[in-house]
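Bit of a strange request maybe. I'm writing a small parser for structure token strings and I need a real example to test against, not something I typed by hand. Could someone generate the tokens for this chain?
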Amino acid sequence: MTTSSEFTAIALALDGTTEAPHFDRRAFKVARIYATLAADGLTANLKLTPDEQEFKMMLAPEAFMPIDNAWGRQGWTTAVLAKLSVEELKAALKMAYAHALPKVKKR
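Reply from user aminoacidic:
Good idea to test on real output. This should exercise your parser:
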């Protein structure tokens, strides 16, 4: 079981992550937003690929579900913090973080 404080600490420990308001949520980003935390601190939305989302939902259906709109079909996934261990949360945040890193230009 994790808390919003643990979520925030883990996210901000990822290199280059900043926190800012995002509508009624708190957003965590590097080059792009990769996670948002609900105002009530009970859930977070994570940017995963559709395949990663499906995998997370197979492993822990009580903890992960797609956002119920087009964003969800693109991989944005709601995570119920109370249903995740610290290690599960770290793994999910690192997965989302990897998608938000700046693109490396090829020469």
